[in-house]
Prior knowledge:
4 copies of one chain form a homotetramer. Chain A has 388 residues and is an alpha/beta fold. Chain A has 2 domains: 7-163 and 371-383, 3-Layer(aba) Sandwich (Rossmann fold), CATH 3.40.50.720; 165-364, Dihydrodipicolinate Reductase, domain 2 (2-Layer Sandwich). Chain A is built from 12 helices and 13 strands. The first copy, chain A, has helices at residues 7-12, 26-35, 57-60, 98-110, 143-149, 165-181, 205-208, 219-231, 293-302, 306-310, 331-334, 367-383; strands spanning 16-21, 41-47, 91-94, 114-117, 158-161, 184-193, 234-241, 247-251, 263-270, 277-285, 320-322, 344-351, 357-363. In chain A, strands 9-6-10-13-12-11 form a 6-stranded mixed beta sheet. In chain A, α2 (26-35) crosses α12. In chain A, 58% of the residues are buried. Chains in contact: A-B, A-C, A-D, B-C, B-D, C-D. Chains A and B meet through β6, β9, β10 and α11 of A and β6, β9, β10 and α11 of B.
Amino acid sequence: xSSKITPNTVSSLKKVRVGVLGATGTVGQRFITLxxxxxxxxxxxxxxxxxxxxxxxxxxxxxxxxxxxxxxAADLIVKGCTPEEFKTCQLxxxxxxxxxxxxxxxxxxxxNIPLFSNAKNYRRxxxxxxxxxxxxxxxxxxxxxxxxxxxxxxxxxFIVTNANCSTTGYVIPLAALEKAFGPIESVLVTTxxxxxxxxxxxxxxxxILGNVVPYIGGEEEKIEWETxxxxxxxxxxxxxxxxxxxxxxxxxxxxxxxxxALRVSASCNRVPVVDGHMECVSLRxxxxxxxxxxxxxxxxxxxxxxxxxxxxxxxxRKAIEVFEEPDRPQPRxxxxxxxxxxxxxxxxxxxxxxxxxxxxxxxxxxxIGAATSSIINAEYAVLKGIVS
Amino acid sequence: xSSKITPNTVSSLKKVRVGVLGATGTVGQRFITLxxxxxxxxxxxxxxxxxxxxxxxxxxxxxxxxxxxxxxAADLIVKGCTPEEFKTCQLxxxxxxxxxxxxxxxxxxxxNIPLFSNAKNYRRxxxxxxxxxxxxxxxxxxxxxxxxxxxxxxxxxFIVTNANCSTTGYVIPLAALEKAFGPIESVLVTTxxxxxxxxxxxxxxxxILGNVVPYIGGEEEKIEWETxxxxxxxxxxxxxxxxxxxxxxxxxxxxxxxxxALRVSASCNRVPVVDGHMECVSLRxxxxxxxxxxxxxxxxxxxxxxxxxxxxxxxxRKAIEVFEEPDRPQPRxxxxxxxxxxxxxxxxxxxxxxxxxxxxxxxxxxxIGAATSSIINAEYAVLKGIVS
Amino acid sequence: xSSKITPNTVSSLKKVRVGVLGATGTVGQRFITLxxxxxxxxxxxxxxxxxxxxxxxxxxxxxxxxxxxxxxAADLIVKGCTPEEFKTCQLxxxxxxxxxxxxxxxxxxxxNIPLFSNAKNYRRxxxxxxxxxxxxxxxxxxxxxxxxxxxxxxxxxFIVTNANCSTTGYVIPLAALEKAFGPIESVLVTTxxxxxxxxxxxxxxxxILGNVVPYIGGEEEKIEWETxxxxxxxxxxxxxxxxxxxxxxxxxxxxxxxxxALRVSASCNRVPVVDGHMECVSLRxxxxxxxxxxxxxxxxxxxxxxxxxxxxxxxxRKAIEVFEEPDRPQPRxxxxxxxxxxxxxxxxxxxxxxxxxxxxxxxxxxxIGAATSSIINAEYAVLKGIVS
Amino acid sequence: xSSKITPNTVSSLKKVRVGVLGATGTVGQRFITLxxxxxxxxxxxxxxxxxxxxxxxxxxxxxxxxxxxxxxAADLIVKGCTPEEFKTCQLxxxxxxxxxxxxxxxxxxxxNIPLFSNAKNYRRxxxxxxxxxxxxxxxxxxxxxxxxxxxxxxxxxFIVTNANCSTTGYVIPLAALEKAFGPIESVLVTTxxxxxxxxxxxxxxxxILGNVVPYIGGEEEKIEWETxxxxxxxxxxxxxxxxxxxxxxxxxxxxxxxxxALRVSASCNRVPVVDGHMECVSLRxxxxxxxxxxxxxxxxxxxxxxxxxxxxxxxxRKAIEVFEEPDRPQPRxxxxxxxxxxxxxxxxxxxxxxxxxxxxxxxxxxxIGAATSSIINAEYAVLKGIVS
Lengths: 388, 388, 388, 388
């Protein structure tokens, strides 16, 4: 990987031209809102389905953000989602729906375009990193292997995914605690997830008004699986080798290599909240005796992920805001927190009578849980020279 | 205790005259709604605060039930909460607020009036049983001791409490599982509780509309503590004796006697739901290997508490309704279930990656979670001859 | 029309076999819930789309009612929506979506099957009555003309529609007031409509949670137009004649005949309420001086529609419940009222500074606003011998 | 009144020291949020009840704003609400509750402190102006009379009130239309008001979750009365004279003087929305023929109140934002609009079948509907030299 580029270097360079796929959807709208004020990234192209293609973006979109649509993007002509139409982009963000993301994202990578995807399709791919930017940007190290295994090998194109919104929110304090106190042995997480996590039209109002739905299809499996990929290291594969016979790198899902096994049990609920996933977490450390609630509070509060020290412009001012008040955080008051939705808020850190420690974590599922993560991942890649 | 009275005996007797304390409050209104259609109990007297005393009930109350106020109770003159004014009642229900319940309930017992209380004040009293009628009516056996220890000893008066609404809901499936598979070792429960659980005016709308509050004062401690008292047996005290030197009976909170220790960890949340507490439960059995999800489903479904076989008229047709649909139960659709709010609904029974089994349980916090439990307790006491 | 059949006559006859079209949809589910307990009507056949055809109803439907699905209907095999499959039905209810109702309902009538439709397709047809059963069942008198104009003329088939839910609710007090005080000159109505009025999936939760949407497509036009058809009489057409040269009967939309002109202005809003349309009504009478608020209250309270005196089994115990409390009716507490959703509730009757009188009216949009109206219309037709 | 001071003059002067009464309440918190970023006003003193007195503000307040409490105000020691403790303030804002505002505000005026009040107590006072800053700042002209009638006459102290939140929102488009098309003859307004309008704890959640309450105590009278005072001019009193025998100025409530009579009819509802009052307005002009909807749209869109041209720093960028989309504005998406809550949003301008024109207006009840209005009024007074 190339030598480090400082933020100053970047801002003195000419701007980075980016594209957005799935631009009219919920996540796409969020990408555009965030990119409109980005110091480096300039929206060069917007892609959507055939129905929108050829229209001005402001006419193609049913804008559902509380911040009015403005800026240059509003008057861009929407393109189809083909690599040819995005040739001038240096990198592309994908807010595509899962039913189309697979083929389109593959084509973009094959066309040598770096792609930062919020879709779930490649999250389980053994050569695609699943990166929560406040946790495991080190997993970018698998990119050269991803490129070399492609046929033909790629010089620039790759796919990086970010995690499911409910995984992202709670894995950040987990990472902070593992950094401070060593491996976690088991985690029980019960989520209360906002409706915006399901996109638009998403959850019918008759299902959720004054109600709780104790089920979100596939969500529990995603949390249980993604946590292992994100918190696991990268290790040598036991079976696979490259053409030179060297072992391939692989994600240490079963913790065969470095860390001891981690067990995760998730229960997911939908609640009538617009934005903000609340998660009640109980966990047990390997280390005996476990840290005290006060030690946990301090470790969370001082956690400083690499993207902050590196100077990614979209990184939160504070990665984890720790509340002392007994009834906070709450979605309506705290979803943006002091971190503008790019970090998470933790409260109610206390002893668990069954495992060691329990707390609640609140994350902004449409910011750090979605588009903001893709954007920080891209900032990291630019600063590290992975995208040029 | 007297010989068993059958339902037939009861219905051939003259009706049972009952009183309601705290009649204008939320729980009081619920008592009156339920008692208005009761086959045995006749509302004889209603008690409330000075502000309401002397008014017709229909004028004193701000009626907040979806069932219109009607029947004989509407025209009763509200009395003060003194035993003298309830002399003609054979038993009294208390929906009093905790800030006044202590003294008033004490006075009623001292006046030899059997009292079934929904208030929390005497739940922790070592001689007062805390009875979830679908779980531990056997704890009525402590009543003679409660009466004999009173000074002077009581011939008829006693206090029986029912449990906190969130405890009641989840302890019913726990009891069913212990009956089928032996002791549970540990339980983690995360609640999503309805606003009606906080009474009226209760939760300010600015706190809960489109929001989740991850805290309910004292609630987690109540669940953790009450579960031990309810699921524990009654054993001989190690220290206390009666005047004859015989050991007093005491609740086996620490499971020193019969059952192995049980650890409970609760996380309580308020959600914008009107009626119906949802609780996500994970638990571990002592028994190895643990039962399968299918065995758990069957054990829950066949659970028949004593109050059902005894024929208490307010007992649910089915104690535990087990849902197979992946997204049920839900408060809005299922809070009344097939049990009319007097039982509970369980769904999503599946393996837990950390403990053994997880599921959700939904209970009607204003029915089985409050007034209905008091009423079934009273029915049980009448059928067993504890009240005459 | 044939001689009157009394309720006693009906109940001594064999039951009436009925079918339901659109059985899996929201309105269809409501039809089935109501018909399952109906004293006369026996569900003989259920029709739905190709996707459901051939399945047992309980497997075809995603049941969304708070009353559990039970009874005979649950095990019926769903049919396609063709008249051949409903030959044995004496009458059919339609809860079809508007995009398919036009052709299917036409075919049923052509096959000589009486059809009671909740769909909007034939509401504006000049020979199809638009009947709010508590207001204008006299419009059934147009049925013979509808049958005779069909080619070939029909002996039994016809189409009767009921009105849009928001029209139905507020037109009932209007009719009561016109009956008591003569014609109304102008009405301003502002609605706050429940989400269940939009069916399922209907309103996306992101659009309505904690929000008000000041627009419901086509709704204001429906209210303004339907009110004229319902409250207008039936008069001789000026232009159209039958084959004998006699003038055709027509709906007096422009009040050219009997009554003075009525002007209606509607403003429609969607609010986050599950069931129950609230409508704020201001109106001006022709008569000077206008009646006082107290006179209005009394006139509303004593209103007894023909369907009540005739003895339709689904008619409300009270057509209009008048509240004296300043803050009632409210959807959550009063949607069922004392009329079980088959009547309406009126409150806050007071003077209007601009027109004469203002009040609020609450109606159960899924009962009297939809299926219940179709069913009462059918009961009326049976009692009057229009269906045999 | 003194010669005009330009914004430049002001900003070159030393800052204006202000106080806030009722600082811990909902409106008080809003004052502090807005003043913390104000270019001129420096918070010098905070006053609250005895319970809070002597504590640091951050400890006395239960902060309920989505913007975190920060800045200098957080560490101020809360004072009692006596003029002595606010001596160093050049003007004071009052967010006091009505039950205490009467005496306290009187005392502040008597102590020669200019007071800008959000409370209702002095709104009907014949010498106190009721000023919606986008509508009638010209009513400041009554201040010298208010000061001279005080005993003893005041050199600096006065009381200015702003209007009720629901009046403020809809009177702004009314003023714009009267400016363009002459007097309005009659207005019917139906409100759907947010819970934040009732303060904290305010509306109990059991009353409003999934519900509409068709009543807000005193609100309809306020709208009907305040509109007349705000839109009326100032005229000579027929009866009252000053000590020199010159007629006193009075508010032209009955339009005896200049303008023709205006009739207002209001119907007020509470809906489950956090922030943003929606109001459905129908009105009739005196002028015949009335303007077309398109003319109305244009007149609203170009409306520029004096406070904008004068340069009040808190004035909205656009006073009235006019939406063309059929389903906007909506509280959740548009409450802040392009005017940051200091203007209003209008949509659905169309013909009314009964009066002339109808439309919806959305206003941010906690901004322009409350604290923001007081602050703009104070800015106006500073710029005009009324406060020095």
